[in-house]
Here is the input.
Amino acid sequence: MAEQNLINMSPAELVKALMNDNSLASEFDRLCLWDKFVPFHWSKILSVPKFIEKAKEYKDGWFTLLEMTPEIANECECWNEFEPWQWESLLSEQPQFANKCDTWNEFNVSYWLNLLSVRPQFAEKCDKWNEFESWQWKNLLSDQPQFIEKAKEYKEGWLIILQKMPELAGECNRWDEFNSMDWRDILSTQPQFAKKCNKWHEFDEWHWSILLSEQPQFADKCDMWYEFNCYNWEYVLSAQPQFAEKCDEYNGWEKMDSHIRSTLRRRINEFRKMQNFETSKLDKK
Here is the structure.
């Protein structure tokens, strides 16, 4: 194969060419093409056993080898070259190499979430607990519920605990730390905590449209009807067509384009017909 053709190939194209013609390896040596490969490419190249020794010449080759054949770890001399993301991936598969890792403090929250979800034994090394967001606590607790006590140390952890395990509310000492978005999420699933909320005045139109679409009983607390745009009205009315009268009262229809308006009015008419039908059944009884 022409030298220039090889040089101009992408890594994926080079792998394909090598798999089709293993003899190209000598050209790869001469043109330093092995340097182009990352672990993804090495995982394909190593499907040919003859390339194992070549992989040992490169950090990303060793990373792939250690995941696939950990028994040759004693030959590896590039442990300190691995990046944090590689350690997260490697330890997820081969936790016995933990004593080789010297980049724990470089792990970000995403790496910790991925690692702890499958290897909870490394929790004592985590120094990023205070950076976990609520959705990350949700994912971690779903995979490893034993971390609930750790979650209780943080407001973001409690945000998930209250939504998933409201019976633990008596232990919560973070109520005053929740912001309006937090309260929107809590009350959307656990409306019984409304008396704890002291952020009603901070709800914006999106907080209200999302909450009311799930829990319409809070309509009397909403003071943002005038601020609703066409998307807020569409969101609320699609879920709760009984708010059509509010839309009339606050001129919401005028903010919508004709297609959205006609679609919503059709739904509302269907809703009202159903209501009338149910009412007539009750009257007959």
Notes: The mean pLDDT is 94. Residues 258-284 form the longest helix (27 residues).
